[in-house]
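Lab notebook, bench 4. The sequencing result for the construct came back, and we need a structural model before the next group meeting so we can plan mutations. Quick request posted to the team channel:

Model the 3D structure of this chain.
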Amino acid sequence: PSAVSATPVTYGDVASLRRFTVAEYDRMIDEGIIDDTDRVELLEGYVVLKMPGNPEHDGAVQAVADAFYARRPAGWCYRVQSGIRLAD
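Done. Here's the predicted structure in token form:
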């Protein structure tokens, strides 16, 4: 049988970086390669470290969230710094 080799998806001309699909990222979680103790996320196809917490940033985010919450239209909700999954 002949071996099928897929060309890896890389970042431009940088062959040392590889992009991952959401399905591949989910599989890494399912297989235990990534778990709740890993401070990483998938952004633009790259597994990157999450920013550490910062009290000043957290306070600013809360102040903006409070201001938006007070002015939101009836029936609307919003999420602050929550995960989102897009098709691509």
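The chain has a mean pLDDT of 84.
Will bring this to the meeting.
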